[in-house]
Design a protein that fits this description.
Layout lengths: L1 E7 L7 H9 L4 E4 L8 E5 L2 E5 L11 E4 L4 E2 L1 H13 L8 E4 L3 E2 L2 H14 L11 H9 L12 H21 L10 H15 L3 E2 L1 H10 L3 E5 L25 H7 L7 E7 L2 E3 L12 H10 L11 E3 L1 E2 H11 L3 E5 L9 E9 L5 E2 L11 E8 L16 H14 L3 E5 L7 E3 L9
Parallel strand pairs: 1-10, 1-11, 2-5, 2-10, 5-7, 6-8, 7-9, 11-15, 14-16, 15-19
Antiparallel strand pairs: 3-4, 12-13, 16-17, 16-18, 19-20
The chain binds inosinic acid.
């Protein structure tokens, strides 16, 4: 049995989709444990590009794919994704399973996300507008609706009528958006229609996952977003509303920490971020622009341009600790191919002049990164599949990153395709 957690070690968009897809060949199932359709996992194969928002990337290889209890589900978005996959002849019905306990993103969650963001003006979080924050708020407030709740229509109507009364009152009196108020009958009807289509997929996912582990199966837990968007350990309040860290697997999928065999941290060879919030190594100049265009750095969910900057070793070292990362998959190295010199942030100078290698959990917007410069390789590394074919400067860059963040690299990605990858013997799952 192998139980591998795959997490993003920066602010998301590290290239998790490709690595999950690749390792799924060696796995029996893939489980999502947090987030919702705010995520966008891009996978390329057979010259086609797939962007999955909710369903685990494992579905493309027709492996057991589970949406765990910690995921929040917009039923319309999920059904659309199922339809698109079926149109590509991918067998969804046999492979997808969804937790009864996963919370639903309701129409009022989408409205509240968008209305709140526009009220915040310059202080907005820059959310994806998919209703994720308000859904998790209601989950914690114990007023959420779970997929399994749709089975009992009488009880559902009773609960929903009270919830909608409260939401409409807020829309009317706080947001001044009387015209956006919701109609109970319409909401219920839409939910029942969605439920009819989704019911065949519902299950007790924690039981299913544990049964799989007991049977010695190899499972991948696919994280969404990244370490510094974690609601507890990220750059709060500029975070998402779930626990994106490896620890989130235990609650979001229902397994104990003793089951985990490997935590793989997906790490981009530079840094990007979408949405607002501090970003010490951000490059607001033509170098940042160059990284964005070379790396195709535009959000897979919203299409927004990503903010770009140099690799931040202070940040990734913190991610290694917070997640207990066993090894790293280093992605998008080829984006650095044309740089004569490459910079790495190795420490921060704090506002009071102190220099630290530890990640400060407050006032990250006031740190100045201290850089080290390394020579670039100025040749194409795209598609290289053997370590000994990599330019020596690129190998030196990898070794320096390993030293700085205190974790070994087990996978090197040299392009978006499955085959553009070097799997070192220490990569998880490949050696049964
Ligand atoms: P929310 O998750 O839509 O509430 O957005 C909160 C923050 O997380 C915003 O800065 C988003 O841009 C960011 N975010 C959410 N999902 C992703 C993702 O999959 N990749 C990168 N950033 C994300």
């Amino acid at each position: 049995m192998n139980c591998v957690i795959i997490v993003g070690s920066q602010w998301g968009d590290e290239g998790k989709g490709k690595i999950v897809d690749l390792l799924t060949e060696y796995a029996d199932g893939v489980i999502r444990y947090q987030g919702g359709n705010n995520a966008g996992h891009t996978v390329m194969f057979e010259d086609k590009t797939f962007v999955l928002h909710l369903i685990p990337s494992g579905i493309l290889r027709e492996k057991l794919s589970i949406l765990g209890n910690g995921v929040v589900i917009d039923p319309a978005a999920l059904l659309e994704e199922i339809k698109q996959l079926q149109e590509m002849n991918i067998s969804v019905r046999d492979n997808l399973r969804i937790s009864n306990n996963a919370h639903l993103v309701m129409p009022y969650h989408l409205l509240f996300d968008q209305l709140r963001e526009s009220r915040k003006g310059t202080q907005k979080i820059g959310t994806t507008g998919r209703g994720i924050g308000p859904t998790y708020e209601d989950k914690v407030a114990r007023s959420g609706i779970r997929l399994g709740d749709l089975r009992n229509s009488v009880h559902l109507k009773d609960r929903l009528s009270k919830i909608i009364e409260e939401k409409n009152s807020q829309l009317r009196h706080y947001f001044g958006a009387e015209q956006r108020c919701l109609n109970l009958g319409h909401v219920l009807e839409e939910l029942q229609n969605h439920f009819q289509e989704l019911e065949p997929y519902l299950c007790d996912s924690a039981q299913l996952v544990n049964d799989q582990l007991d049977a010695g199966k190899n499972l991948i837990f696919e994280g969404a977003q990244g370490t510094f968007l974690d609601v507890d350990h990220g750059t709060y309040p500029y975070v998402t509303s779930s626990n994106t860290l490896a620890g989130g697997v235990c609650t979001g999928a229902g397994i104990g920490p003793t089951k985990v065999s490997h935590v793989l941290g997906i790490t981009k060879a530079y840094t990007t971020r979408v949405g607002s919030g501090p970003f010490p190594t951000e490059l607001d100049d033509e170098t940042g622009e160059f990284l964005r265009s070379e790396g195709g750095e535009f959000g897979a969910t919203t299409g927004r341009p990503r903010r770009c900057g140099w690799f931040d070793a202070v940040l990734v070292r913190q991610a290694v600790r917070l997640n207990g990362i066993s090894s790293l998959a280093l992605t998008k190295l080829d984006v650095l191919d044309k740089f004569e010199e490459i910079r790495i942030a190795v420490a921060y100078q704090l506002a009071d002049g102190t220099i630290t290698k530890n990640f400060p959990t407050q006032q990250l917007d006031q740190v100045t990164p201290i850089y080290e410069t390394m020579p670039g390789w100025i040749c194409s590394s795209q598609g290289i599949q053997q370590v000994d074919e990599l330019p020596k400067e690129l190998i030196a860059y990898i070794k320096r990153l390993e030293d700085l963040v205190s974790a070994p690299v087990s996978i090197i990605s040299t392009g978006p395709r499955r085959e553009e990858t070097i799997l070192l013997p220490s990569a998880p799952l490949i050696n049964p």
